[in-house]
Amino acid sequence: xxxxxxxxxxxxxxxxxxxxxxxxxxxxxxxxxxxxxxxxxxxxxxxxxxxxxxxxxxxxxxxxxxxxxxxxxxxxxxxxxxxxxxxxxxxxxxxxxxxxxxxxxxxxxxxxxxxxxxxxxxxxxxxxxxxxxxxxxxxxxxxxxxxxxxxxxxxxxxxxxxxxxxxxxxxxxxxxxxxxxxxxxxxxxxxxxxxxxxxxxxxxxxxxxxxxxxxxxxxxxxxxxxxxxxxxxxxxxxxxxxxxxxxxxxxxxxxxxxxxxxxxxxxxxxxxxxxxxxxxxxxxxxxxxxxxxxxxxxxxxxxxxxxxxxxxxxxxxxxxxxxxxxxxxxxxxxxxxxxxxxxxxxxxxxxxxxxxxxxxxxxxxxxxxxxxxxxxxxxxxxxxxxxxxxxxxxxxxxxxxxxxxxxxxxxxxxxxxxxxxxxxxxxxxxxxxxxx
Length: 436
Fold this sequence. Notes:
Layout: E1 3-6, E2 16-22, E3 29-30, E4 37-40, E5 45-48, E6 54-59, E7 66-68, E8 72-77, H1 84-90, E9 129-131, E10 134-136, H2 140-149, H3 167-172, H4 193-198, H5 220-235, E11 238-246, H6 248-260, H7 267-281, E12 287-289, E13 294-296, E14 302-304, E15 306-308, E16 311-313, E17 316-317, H8 325-340, E18 354-358, E19 377-391, E20 394-408, H9 414-429
Parallel strand pairs: 14-18, 18-19
Antiparallel strand pairs: 1-8, 2-4, 2-7, 3-6, 4-5, 6-8, 9-10, 11-20, 12-13, 14-17, 15-16, 19-20
Helix pairs in contact: 7-8, 7-9
């Protein structure tokens, strides 16, 4: 009996998935553990398997189109099996004309490079990129990783089927000491990744006296960020508390820690640990507004916002209060790398009970952040700056960091949030207290 393959829920904020690539076409034999498609969510590009054996009878949408969560991506069954009833039932009993019908096995599938346009009766097939006289075959994830790293895709040797470039080939690629290459789609010479990092930002300027603009299509991540944060800002009554933290002892402690730590501990790691410890004492801050009740979480999962090319993602350090600073540092580094290369998995960016947004490394003095649902609070962290302060009637220079806590007033009151910040201040101003 034919079975519908539905779009899985790959993240807690996902509404639909966009087909980044089909790896099978109608008429192909499919095994349960075959990867039939790459799906782009708001957070990452994921590989989807059907978990059933059979023949691919139907493809719901072409590459680049979206399928809502639990919507039909494809149908798998026996060769020639009638699947119309599945489509009709999905549409409330109304007759549906399949956009992509089964191709009889006797009809050969073209092996030439296909057009980027797919007609209503054609099965989407992989598009081979052309550079000079050489055809390059690569998975969408590999292309994306290569683009993010500034690596020309044509310079990478593929280890997949028929020389197809896959993500592990991009991960393991080591560029020559000097390499300048141009991609097939970019007329601008692309420098090596090391040069790109140091390059000055590109400034777009309109010709004198002319108005111009660029319309940038929204990717899935940007759509979800817009919806989620708008819902948070306009549904949760925010209030803000700002505090100055003297970081002189934290600076000395971090230096001493890094002298013995197997991994470099950052100031953000110190903030994560201090927040986790403070949340132990103030569980009301470690809560979620659930509409009809407030959920106080007994576990402490700290999200740390990371800027990526397509927007913002929040990797989560689970049970942060139970981990050492070096463990937090190691896990944070791993998750940030996964986030930037789109390898991060749903369990690694969901489940947060409290979030930190740190822009100190961007030379920002202080700012306010929008609460990251389902949390009740988010901590905005600014830079550490030498600041004159008065102590016992004498002006001295101290290293000051400003923090601002955004709170959902439905679940956290001002006094509760203030006490949390006082505890956090104690931990950050004297980090040894986190060790006892």
